[in-house]
Structures are given as C-alpha cells and as structure tokens.
Design brief:
Layout (H helix, E strand, L loop, with lengths): L1 H21 L2 H21 L10 H21 L5 H4 L1 H18 L1 E3 L2 E6 L4 E2 L1 H19 L7 H19 L4 H17 L4 H24 L7 H9 L12 H13 L9 H4 L11 H34 L3 H25 L17 H29 L1
Antiparallel strand pairs: 1-2, 2-3
Helix pairs in contact: 2-3, 2-13, 3-15, 5-6, 5-7, 6-7, 6-8, 6-14, 6-15, 7-8, 8-14, 11-13, 13-14, 13-15, 14-15
C-alpha cells in the first residue's frame, strides 16, 4: 500500500516536471525581464506626476502585471485548439466590445477608446488584437483547401477591415494599423499568392491617397487634424519646431542626452516634464535618457529574445492553426515594438502604439501577457506531440 502511494507521488512529480519542461523558459525570462523593467522605469519616471502619491503609477502597473501573469498561466495550461471552435463567438465579442465603446465609452483628449471600470480604463481595441488573431487564424484554417482562392483572401480582409475601421473611428489609428499588420502576417504564413498581396498593396495605396488628398479636397476629413500632423511631422522634425513635432523633438533630445549609460536622476526631459506621455507612448525615450545606450540595448535585447522564441514557436506548432496564431501574435509584437521605438527616434510617425509590456496601461499589459500565454500553450503542445511521436 505504501509502495503504491510512493509510486503515485513519484509519477505525479515526474508528470508535473515534464509538463513544466514543455514550456519555453527563455520566453518566460524575456517576459519577466520586460515587466520588471516596466515597473522600475514607470515608477521612477512618474514619482512627481501625482502630488502626494509618488507610487501611484508604480503600484497600478505592478497590479496589472500581476493580473496579466495569472491570466498568462491560465492560457499556458489551456488547449488553444478549442479557440478554433469558438471563432464565431470570439469574433462577435470583438465587434460588440468595440461598438460598446461608442455607447458607454469615456472621452479623453478628444478620443473615446475605453470603458471605465473600477480598477482600470479598459480598451477593447487592445484585447481585440488577440481576439482578431485567434478568430482570423480559425477562419483561415477552415479554408485550408482554398488558400489560393481570391474569395478566401477577400473574406479574411473584410473580417479584419471591419474592426480596424471601427477602432479608427474612435479614433485609434495605432490599433487599426496593428489589426492590418496581423492580417498581413496571417495571409503571409498561410501562403497567400503574391498577386493577392500586390492587389492589396494597390488598394492600400489608393486608400492613402483618398484619405490624405482626395477626401480633404472635397471637404471630407477622414483623419483628425492632429493625426495628419503627427503622420507628417516626423519627416522633418528638426525643421518643424511647432506643436506638431514637439513630441518627436523632445524624444530625440531625451534619447540623445542619455549617452552611453544615461543621466539617472539628472534626466531633465523626464523629471521636468518636457517629455510628454513619458510613461506610455514615450517610455522608451525615458529608458534612453535615464539609462542610456546600455539600458536601451538591454530592453531591445529582451524584445529580441521574446520575438525569437515566438518565431521558434511558430515553426514547431503541432498544427496549421497553431502556426497561424503564433504568427499573428509574433507580428503583433514585432509591429508594435518597431513602430513605438521608431517614433521615439524619429523614423516612424506618432500613432499612439504602446511598447508591449513596458508602456503603462492595464489593457495593453494584460492583453500582451494573454498573448504570451497562448504562445506558451502552442509551444507546450508542440513539445508534447513531438515527445509522443518519439515513443
């Protein structure tokens, strides 16, 4: 009796250890490193933002990270393939949650993007990034035998453009662009013919011309004036000293003054509030000013590690659906990192895209951790399938 009990305990421990080894430890290290960097940088940069409460943003960012980690752990143990069966409900919830913002959303700085909850302002457009990935991947998987058909590409484009246009109307240009990046990645990974991409590129170019030139010429303003100013100011920030290029110029000053190892507590651009949105959109500028090239390189190295492991997960996924989900999440992360860091150094326009896991904000942090949990689930099931095949 005792021997059988001991054997059961040993088998349980071995099984638990085997399950643990199926997850990607390097991905977890990168995630923890980025979250730790975020809490430290946000806490240090916002000590003077709320009079009498120097740790206001620090505590909240830590709480968001805690909630996100719990959800990530749940997703790690969840069978991601079941999401394919729920695609209609997931896509419906995506559209409904974005529409709900128009009804009960709170306005802030001319935009209505969030729903006010007791603990945070929830942005459905952030969670929508992951919901769009899993639903588009499911719709594409269902048409796996007709991937080269124009109808398949057209349907997927329509499914992505609808939520993208809805968030653009809030207005949330950044999330809309992320949705389109997700669409492009899933089409690419699925093997969509290059002729379809050429046609989509032509349509995108025509849309840009209509939005920026043709529509304003007849009195129809698709983009808000400040959005157009942000999109064009980055082309020559040094020559443009007006309010349109103020953020870019302050960001360049902050990063340039950081040098090799940063200015620490003498980071005047951050401490004296010259750098706008220093805990959200321009948090990478804070890293550059306070910790210099070394700090910026460390953060970028952690992102490189995270994206590398995400790409690795894509290549070993046990099925087509898993590969598409991993590819969509990887594109979501890569696009946001590239655009956010790019806008802080003046090579990309300011679009309001947060730096994943680093920028302050509950919706962004929690959504990104859920996405990483999905990646871990795909990785674990791929390892499990490979282990079974070796038996």
């Amino acid at each position: 009796m005792q021997a059988s009990a001991a054997t059961a305990v040993r088998d349980f421990r071995d099984d638990a250890r085997a399950r643990l080894l199926r997850f990607d430890p390097l991905m977890l290290v990168a995630t923890i490193g980025l979250i730790a960097s975020s809490i430290y940088v946000v806490g240090n940069a916002t000590q003077d933002d709320i009079p009498g409460d120097p740790n206001y943003f620090l505590y909240r960012q830590a709480a968001y990270a805690g909630i996100g980690f719990l959800l990530m752990l749940l997703m790690m143990r969840f069978d991601y393939s079941r999401l394919r069966e729920w695609k209609l409900g997931i896509y419906g919830f995506l559209i409904a949650s974005i529409l709900l913002v128009y009804v009960v959303g709170v306005s802030a700085r001319g935009s209505k993007r969030a729903i006010s909850l007791p603990f945070l302002s929830f942005q459905p457009s952030e969670l929508g990034k992951v919901l769009l990935v899993v639903s588009l991947a499911a719709f594409m998987t269902d048409r796996v035998r007709r991937l080269n058909d124009r109808e398949t590409t057209s349907r997927l484009v329509l499914l992505a453009v609808i939520p993208a246009m809805l968030v653009l109307g809030q207005p949330d240009l950044g999330s809309g662009l992320v949705y389109l990046a997700i669409l492009g990645s899933i089409l690419f990974i699925a093997g969509t013919p290059w002729t379809h991409f050429a046609a989509l590129g032509a349509l995108a170019a025509a849309a840009i011309v209509i939005v920026l030139i043709a529509a304003p010429a007849v009195g129809v303003e698709v983009l808000k004036p400040y959005q157009k100013d942000r999109l064009t100011a980055f082309l020559s920030p040094g020559e443009n000293q007006g309010k349109e290029a103020y953020q870019i110029n302050q960001s360049l000053t902050a990063i340039g003054s950081g040098g090799k190892t940063g200015r620490g507590d003498e980071a005047t651009q951050t401490k004296l509030d010259f750098l706008p949105e220093h805990h959200t959109d321009f948090v990478f500028s804070v890293v550059g000013e306070e910790f210099g090239f070394v700090g910026a390189a460390l953060v970028l190295s952690l992102f490189a590690l995270l994206i590398w492991r995400a790409l690795r997960t894509l290549t070993i996924a046990k099925n087509f659906y898993g590969a598409l989900v991993a590819g969509g999440i990887t594109a979501m992360l890569m696009f946001q990192v590239f655009v956010n860091v790019g806008m802080t150094i003046g090579i990309m326009p300011i679009t309001g895209i947060p730096l994943p896991l680093v920028s302050y904000g509950g919706s962004s942090v929690i959504t990104t951790l859920i996405a990483i949990g999905l990646l871990q689930s795909i990785h674990a099931q791929a390892r499990e399938t490979a282990a079974v095949k070796r038996l």
